[in-house]
Amino acid sequence: MKRCCTYTLGVVSILLLVAGISLVLSKVFPRFVHSMVEKEVVLKNDTDAFEAWENPPAHIYMQFYFFNVTNPLEVLSGERPAVVEVGPYTYREYRPMEEVAFQENGTKVAAVNTKTYIFQPEMSRGPESDLIRTINIPAVTVMKKFQNVFLANLVSAYMRTLGVGLFTTRTVGELLWGYQDDLLASLQKFQPQLDDVFGLFYKSNASNDGQYVFFTGELNYRDFARVDTWNGESSLNWWSTAECNMINGTIGASFHPVITKDEMLYIFSSDMCRSLYAIYEEDVVVKGIPAYRFSPPSEVFGNTTANAGFCVPLGNCPGSGLLDVSTCKQGAPIVLSSPHFYQAEEKFVEAVFGMKPNKEQHQTTIDVNPLTGVVLRAAKRLQVNVHVEKLPHYSETGDVRTLIFPVVYLNEVHTPTHTQHRCGATAAALLLRRHPR
After folding, report:
1. Phi/psi at 174 (nearest 5 deg)?
2. What's the pLDDT band for 95 if we cut at 50, 70, 90?
3. Binning pLDDT at 50, 70 and 90, where does residue 23 land?
4. Whole-prediction pTM
5. Beta bridge partners of 110
6. Main-chain dihedrals φ then ψ at residue 260, nearest 5 degrees
7. What is the DSSP secondary structure assignment for residue 422, as one 8-state letter?
8. How far apart (Å, rounded) are the C-alpha atoms in residues 124 and 303?
9. Which locations, inside or outside the cell, does it occupy (predicted)?
10. What are 418-437's pLDDT values in tens digits?
11. CA–CA dist 313, 426 (Å, integer)
């Protein structure tokens, strides 16, 4: 009997070992965990996913790097601009979801994403009162708007009276959050709808960009936090093709669970007036937690057939690596790119002395935990430029070259503080909730 029991136990142990190995090799356990996560990661009250979506646990910082012009007189004489990067000027960003309202039996949820920026002097190069010499964007916008000979001569004469030129010197705070512009204030008398305050991020602090309606993921886990409509519209109207006007993906704060390496992560950015995508680049580890690094490929801003609709009017493309957003910025000649024209055509880099594109410093990266879709770490980088050229009837432009002039680039940094704990605990919490001891 003793020998029989010993033999039986041995056989059972071997069978259990073989079964365990078979389960691991057949990926039953990973599939089981994936299935649980897909069902549990949904935007609904009293869940970890909803809490993290409503009040992101990660610390988010917005860093601004300005390009200070060192040779303005030479630029007006037709020489190549020389700029010096100044920064960072860092702000803590708070971005809770507010006015949350569930719709259609919990399959959708409406909200506004209010963003507030608080200056962090200890993380900045200097105070917000630092002076920066840069392109006078309001003046360039006005000059481009009034090209009629009579009006151009009139505006040019008035600009000389005000002492307004192609360049301006303003504080960091003014350039970011707004200042009253004398030229705009004068024009406002004839066009009351015109705002006399200009700032690169004017009206962006302690405010939101409108109402979003998101899918909750209740019907399909891949729809988790995906944008359904923005300001009541399911598509944009700035671009010339339906494909370019599509609103795709999430707002970039989180993604659906169970992410694979061969998929594209779509992001809708109202600041960029478009949707874009990121692809898998490499495996990384963020404070002990595995993650996939995704980044936008060069094709996102490339001169490709798929991007032809972003050239407005049709065929008016600024060049590979650039996005002209003047059509959605009230006519201001704003052109977006990666910092230091990273991944753009070399001619844009060579046109401005001081450009030093570098992948490590200027690439946008998003490190996502593939199981939960939680963003563990991110560096979202974008540069604001101005299209500058010599304009007839405006002596203020001198003999300036036609070029894309860099003004500032921003780096939105998501740090892994607290996030790694939430991410690491999510899968275990899901299983324990369904299968308590």
Report:
1. -65, -45
2. very high
3. very low
4. 0.88
5. 101, 213
6. -105, 160
7. H
8. 36
9. Membrane
10. 544 454 445 444 444 444 44
11. 48
Measured CA to CA, the distance from residue 218 to residue 41 in angstroms comes to: 9
Residue 214's pLDDT band, with cuts at 50, 70 and 90, is: very high
Tell me the residue type at 302.
G
What are 71's two structure tokens?
């040779």
Q: 411: exposed, middle or buried (C-beta count within 10 Å: 0-12, 13-18, 19+)?
A: buried
* Structure-token pair, residue 271: 């600041």
Q: In angstroms, what CA-CA distances link 135 with 37, 124, 334, 338, 379?
A: 50, 23, 11, 19, 26
Residue 126's nearest CA partner among 66, 39, 198, 49 is 66
Q: How far apart are CA 94 and CA 116, in angstroms?
A: 5
Asked whether 172 and 66 are in contact (CB, 8 A), the reply is yes
Q: Is the pLDDT of residue 8 over 50?
A: no
Closest to 93 (Cα-Cα) out of 60, 56, 53:
60
Q: What whole-number distance in Å separates Cα of residue 398 and Cα of residue 154?
A: 17
Name the token pair of 396: 């203020």
The pLDDT tens digits of the residues spanning 276-316 come to 999 999 999 999 899 999 999 999 998 888 889 999 888 88
The Cα–Cα gap between 10 and 2 comes to 12
Residue 375 exposed, middle or buried by CB count within 10 Å (0-12, 13-18, 19+): buried
Which amino acid type is present at position 403? L
- Domain range summary for the chain, segments of one domain joined by +: 1-31, 41-431
- Per DSSP, the chain holds a count of helices (H) and strands (E) of 11, 19
Tokens of 243: 């494909």
